[in-house]
């Protein structure tokens, strides 16, 4: 995660003088693009050391964007109360948002050297000399003076030897102290190096965990895609079977229609033969009538025969009418069978078209519409998006929410008449409908929905990077963050920064 403030120190190791005094300078830089009111504080590894540290001048100052201030820190340790070393650092934070905008400074190692009290030097034994002088006065001034001189020379020689020995001891003590200081410094450096190595190891472990999670997600998505492809295949097979059954039924209906037509033709032929027989019967009846008129003697018999013939003729005519009706019914059934076969063929064609649509869903002709007022409408979801996808730069979540509430017509190229409070961050579901994973860098289509996004088609300033979503990933700890390069959605902490792309409309 990037730090809001860059904090450096003149020296990470500070050795106090023998009185316990020392000082160092911290440099604090506001790395953001906005002016901030910044406060600082000194933090020690033991609260009782806090009173020994003091920031010269104001600890709370105004920082312009990308601005820098220096803080001079004085250390005054009572030499009689403390021996050894301790650590401290300088932290910086925003007065308005102390929890979201803060940075811990570099640690300074402070060493208090041991106070060496010099041993008191033995003075010259003047009292002994005086007594000797007084005693020897009676012996003789010459002998006394000679003896006194001998004693003085011996005493001076011993004093010089003692001073030389003390100087050598002090020199060795300084060398030992120097080696000890070097050892402490090396130990501190080794400790800092170990801490950095441990931090890098933890960072590597975290990245490895993220890589494993990403691989698991990729594997899961691949399995899902394979399952969906299998399901589509099964549906396509089912539709194909349905189409084949429909085609088979249509073929059977055609055969039934052909059979009905054949039977109708047979019935028509039968009716024709019946009509022919009826004509013959009529002729026979006429002949019978003629013979009846001719043979009056047999009038009764002829009349009976004629009546019988007439009945037979009427019966033949009646049967002919019935045959005609049967033929008409058969023709109607055949026509209905033909219509049914046509409908079955149409349904079969529709089933085949449905199968093709199941296998491949074509995109709508126009995905996005540029409204020429700084907004773009998604024709699939009817949501209205801000045309400029990078009006605010990278922001943390708190700042992104505040910018969304403040956006209105007249900002970010808007002329749509929108007011404050109508714009918001998109939800995870809205992002997922927006993403088009057929494309990468970015995973977004053009206005027509036919190829990858290009500049101003229909959006502008699209970044192949992380964008904020409004939805919580798990409880209140993390928020969804959309990676627009490949079209992935990940849960991330709320203190990182991401780009801000706003939307309005019903969720």
Write a brief caption for the model.
The chain has helices spanning 126-137, 141-294, 299-359, 397-406, 428-434, and strands at residues 5-9, 13-15, 21-30, 36-44, 53-55, 60-63, 68-76, 84-94, 102-103, 108-112, 368-370, 375-378, 384-386, 394-396, 466-474, 478-483, 488-493, 497-499, 503-504. By secondary structure, it is of the alpha+beta class. The chain is rod-shaped.
Written overview of the protein:
There is one protein chain. With 507 residues, the chain is an alpha+beta fold. Among the domains are: 108 residues, Immunoglobulins (Immunoglobulin-like); 105 residues; 137 residues, Mannose-Binding Protein A, Chain A. Helices cover 48% and strands 20% of the residues. It is built from 5 helices and 19 strands. Strands 2, 4, 6, 8, 9 and 10 form a 6-stranded mixed β-sheet that branches. It has a 4-stranded antiparallel β-sheet with strand order 1-3-7-5, with no helix packed on it. Strands 11-12-13-19 form a 4-stranded antiparallel β-sheet, with no helix packed on it. Helix 1 packs antiparallel against helix 2 and helix 2 packs antiparallel against helix 3. The longest helix has 154 residues. The radius of gyration is 55 Å and the shape is rod-shaped. The two termini are 31 Å apart.
